[in-house]
Design a protein that fits this description.
This protein is α+β, with helices and mostly antiparallel strands. It has one domain. Helix content is 36%, strand content 23%. Strand 1 and strand 2 form a beta hairpin. Helix 2 packs across helix 3. The longest helix is centred in the last third of the chain and has 23 residues.
Length: 103
């Protein structure tokens, strides 16, 4: 699956946490015996969005960008994994992070 994601043009990142030097990308890893695929933004955007966690973030430009990217990439990942004939199930994770469980 990592090769399929790379063939689709994604940078396949290591599982979290990313260091300041690492860019974001797709992370595929095993959790509770299942394959999970997540989109990880660059650490800079992730930190900026986390800094707004004290309020609802709707007025903060970094939070708006973070959620726009997160939602777009979640949709794109679902379409690409399905296009490669993987069976997926969306899942909500803590802190509103999204992921796909691949069957």
């Amino acid at each position: 699956m990592r090769l399929d994601l790379a063939a689709a043009g994604f940078h396949v990142a290591p599982p979290q946490p990313l260091t300041d030097e690492e860019q974001g990308g797709v992370a595929a890893y095993i959790e509770d015996g299942r394959v999970v695929v997540d989109w990880l933004p660059h650490a800079r955007l992730d930190r900026a969005a986390l800094a707004t966690a004290d309020n609802d973030g709707t007025d903060d430009e970094d939070a708006v960008r973070y959620y726009a990217v997160r939602n777009a990439m979640d949709t794109a990942l679902a379409a690409i994994l399905t296009g490669f004939r993987y069976t997926i199930r969306r899942r909500r994770r803590p802190h509103s992070r999204l992921g796909h469980i691949v069957a």
